[in-house]
Amino acid sequence: MDYLIHRLSNSCDNTNNQYIHELFGMFLLTFSLTGHYPYDEDISDVALQIWLNIYEASISTTAYTVSNVHDEDAIKRIHTEFLQRAFIKFHYPKDLNQYYTVWNQEDRDLWLKFRQELSNCFLSVFRYLNLHDWFLQATNQLQSTICNCTNEELLANWQESEALLFILSSISEHVIYKNESQIIPLLNFAYIISNIILNYIHKLEQYITYSMNYDVLIHCQKQSLPPPPPPPSQQQQHHHQQQQHPPPPQIFILCKTVLLCIENYYSIIVTMVTLSEINLIKFILNSLLLSTYITTNENYQNDLIELCHISLCVIQIILKSKLSSSNMLVDMVTNTLEYYLYHTKLIDQTSYNLISYCIGMLLYISEKQNKQITINSLQNILYSRLETFRLLCTTTNTQDLSDLPQNVISICSQFTCKQNEINKKSHFITILLGSVIQMFDGFISVEQPIDNGIIVNHHIITILSKLLCYLKQSLTEVAFSQLPEYFIQYHKLLQVGLPIFTCSLNNPMDDIMISMVIESIHCIFYTFHYILEKYNKLDETILKPIQYFIEWLFNDQSNMNEHSSFINLASSLLSNILDKINILLINQTIIVDDKLFGKYIGYTKEERINHPLSPILMSFIGQSITEEIEISSRFISQLINFKSQETKGNQQRKSIFNLLNDDAHMSLKLFLSLAFSGISVPEWSTVESCIQLACHLLTILTYENNIDPLMILDDKLLFEINICILLILTKGVPPPEKLLIKYAELYCCLANLFPCKQFIFLSFITGNIQSISQEYQLKLTQIPHSNILIELITDCLCYTSLTERAQFVIMVTRPSLSLNKVTRSISTFIRLLSLQRHGNC
Prior knowledge:
This protein is mostly helical and 841 residues long. Among the domains are: 1-130, no CATH class; 536-697, no CATH class; 714-841. A two-stranded antiparallel ribbon has the order 1-2. The chain is globular and about 100 Å long. The model is unreliable at 61-70, 223-229, 231-244 and 646-653 (pLDDT under 50).
């Protein structure tokens, strides 16, 4: 294709190139078939691929070497033709009834995907080929159409305007792009587009109002509270009354596309002189109400759900903007969300989460504006959901909803649930917990960052405290056969909740709030304590939230000396986990017989359980627990890397080791056992995490003044570590490049800690020196089967020369050598082994 584009760019100067125009004309024919892909024709995806190939060739440095403006015009002309024909393919079918009823779901999905790929191509051409003329001409034509045609005419020929609006939305990232001087080069074009959006909103407003119950619109747009929701038995009747004039299906599509434009051009729209804030807000809220339309055609549902999602996303954008200071805005949004929640039969989880995020934002804005009536209205929503959450968490009879009150069943019936869902309570707990987390996220999003003094009120602390209490009861008292699915979200709840607690403790409103926070922190601790006792397996789902909680306790302790018990909670949890890791490793050494693969293992019972454990022994017997080793090593590695914030009046940053009252450094020895248990197992992911932990520990031993490295890592252990590494590097199958770097990092850490010993031990193991000191020889004899292991290594090295081995040893034992050089040395050594082994086969 590069060659063809080069021929095309020079065709103006060469009359012999007329056939090149005919060839590109044939390319254009692929976009000329009537109908829509893939229902009417199945060639447009090929046409799109041809266009992409032409585009890529057009911007390549080798092909796009035009000599004059005429040559450049030849390339632009072909892309303009593609733009025009692709634009026609962009239109929705004229017969939407056929689209929704005759087309199957797969065809609709393929067409929407094809449409999105087309829009990406429009963006690329607009950005890199500067074909602004086509876009400007099309935009001006749309502006003229909107201004000069009647509402009926605009709606009758809606496909063209919708297609162009969708394209304008797709190219927005380049239209409003700011250069290094913070100037928007295409600002005038952005204003034209924004003006079109506002004019289009004005045209659509009449149809939305006509299609919906007028009383509903007026009610949601006034500054008053909505009436209480009708009982469930009357809600269906209310729905039928609402649908006085079924809206034409194109209204859903048009509103969704216009909302996309608002989302992408909002930063420009909000600065427009012609902006009517109230009309903009009404359109967005009315679009949300449109999504509650009840239809017998299930194929409409995807468009209605997408309309709901984009409406709520745009509401969030507005609540974060300067428009949020409007008293009317807060009331209108609150009333509309209440209406939606009380009168929508089924709500998907994404919609519910988006609504909850908006409620959190509204709660913060209302508190700031001292709008008590609005606050009460929002609290009614939250506390009804909280009561439902409590009953779901604390009822123990069944996993279905038969033992719950009718009001709880009514709320749960709004949420979509799979027909074959067995643990329905757990499923609904997951939905409600996720929505409340979104509410907290929305609350703190209005004024980020939270650490800069956001005001946390009693209601937020009360909801958070009760949530944690109900979850504790659910996890510790309600019988579950396994860890519930909603526990995954417990970590997210802590991520949003603990910073709120920090803010409350740093800026307390009163003693009651402080008491609630402290009680909640202890509630989290007891929840984790119980889970660690009940679920014996070390699971990342459990360890990640515990790690976050420990770090938060330790970090905030530096600023909260009055809450000294927090540090004890962190220490207790960490000790509990270390006990489990210790039991995991020790049990593995105890259950193994005295014979392994027909040979005596040579380690006494006492030697097997003393930390640090033998890396050689663990490389054989630890393969059945590699998953637990990997998870645990990753957990410990992240914890020992954690540093607390600087304490007030004290510039020293504390590490997690300050949590452990461990003068004998038993925890450090346990960590070494864990790290070196996985450095030579077959699972590369386990090897990577264990080497990472080993490097962290060796760095601590190198630079920590109050620890004697020889008391922790003796000569015997150092011998075993080097034997394990060489057994991997010399086995003939090179590790992945990422692991080679990790092994190089491990060698660097060992060289920085024990450079001389490393040189001697590696030289002896590789056969470069034939004897070592009597002291080292004695240590070596204490390693069972050490002679056999060294023979295995030297047999693998037999095809390499002593000089090559010596070069390798010198490079990996030299302290302060760069990681790149050590990595290259290991890679070269492995390649020599492989080449010479195969050369002598």
